[in-house]
Amino acid sequence: MRLASAILSLLGGFFLLDPAAATTLTIGVAAPLSGPSAVLGRQIEYGARLGAGANGAAISVVDDTCTAAGGAAAAAQFAAEKVDIVVGFLCTEAIEAAMPILKQAGIAVITPGVRTDSLTDRRAKTGWPVFRLGPRGDAERDAAGRVLSRLWRDQPFAVVDDGTIYGRELAEAMRATVEQAALKPVFTDTFRPEMDNQVGLVGRLRKAGATSVFVGGDGRDLAVMARDAAKLGADMAFAGGEALRAASDVPYTQGTLMIAMPEWADVADKKTLDLFSAAKVLPEGYALPAFVAVEIAGQAKKEAAGKPLIETLADRDFTTATGIIRFDAKGDLAKNPYRAFRFDGTRFVPLEGQ
After folding, report:
1. Is-contact 190 162, C-beta < 8 A?
2. Which residues contact residue 96 at a Cβ distance below 8 angstroms, ignoring those fewer than 6 apart?
3. How confident is the model at residue 22 (pLDDT cuts 50, 70, 90)?
4. What is the CATH topology of the domain spanning 139-260?
5. Topology of domain 2-135+264-326, CATH
6. Any idea where the Leucine-binding protein domain is (predicted)?
7. Strand locations in 162-211, DSSP E?
């Protein structure tokens, strides 16, 4: 509560929605401000408030409770207030209940958090004016296959997974993508996760001749494999998905590859980071994406010249605190944000030559 009060004190009270200000960009902010996701929802609120202050916008914040009922109620309020655009939503249930109402009202949505593929894949059928600032659910899987099939084209590589839904889908997508590139792994298998050692698996990998191994699973399991490979004298490089970042205390082997999104704070400009610092708000989680969404809304408002913002969001470059953002015709990011990172012995850094 002290953090919220500090921000409101810094930014002033003029961010409250003023229907009389016809030329002011008005933004509805939908976020879970109660319940188990409240911490993430507050990140959206703080980022949107800072963005509003920097872009001369007015905002109306509503708790969508991460539920269908909350999403529909938030949408109804925004429609009644005639906001220009809505920023937010973290839960599929909330945004799917809100979109029919917002579509009817002609209000577009920029969501920083909902990854469900069908949200934009069904656009031709639903006509929902939703634009996704975060990645699609399949973005990580697509990037893993695309990046590693290029890096490992001339190497004997293996693909293993831990049998979980996440690990299996990641590994299967990897195999499908490399096969499209006329490549084939020398070894595939499903391993038992959370083991103290993976000597048996490493032995089979070495026997198959694998020098590079993609692991669909947890970072700790990957680290155990790399440790055991070193003990057995097997020269193997390991790679995994963004789950590696979640296990920040794992002793990864230098050179380990991770397919993940850049941290928003790592690509944000200094001016914006200084703004967050002055407001005593950490630029973490959904705070920066919400800030960027407001920036995009502001630029779209200027481009619209009185037309609905829906018509100015697709197939257009927006200059933001984190670089150029462009949405495709479906509302997804035009460029997959996932890339390869290499562990340098201390942290994961962007792989050169991307």
Report:
1. yes
2. 68, 71, 119
3. low
4. Rossmann fold (3.40.50)
5. Rossmann fold (3.40.50)
6. 24-344
7. 187-190
